[in-house]
Write a structure and sequence with these properties.
The protein has 75 residues and is mainly α. It is 51% helix and 5% strand. The chain has a single domain, classed as 434 Repressor (Amino-terminal Domain).
Length: 75
């Protein structure tokens, strides 16, 4: 038997914005919560960049703790 695939959530601008709305936070507040810049949140939401690595993992953890419902993608 092979190793089970790890569930990794793929974040896009719409999902980041939806999470922020679910948490009733401004971009600045979410940036402070995640330890990043407000401009980074803006760039994610505008899909200039996608959260990846530690940022994507942190968003997933925050989403789970905030009881934010999303469909996790499999890699």
């Amino acid at each position: 038997m092979g190793k089970p695939k790890e569930v990794v959530h793929q974040w896009d601008g719409k999902k980041v914005r939806a999470l922020r709305g679910h948490m009733k936070m401004t971009q600045r507040e979410m940036a402070a919560e995640l330890g990043t810049r407000q401009q980074t949140i803006s760039e994610w939401e505008k899909e200039m960049y996608k959260p990846r690595g530690a940022s994507a993992t942190l968003l997933t953890i925050v989403a789970e703790r905030a009881d934010f419902k999303y469909q996790a993608d499999r890699e």
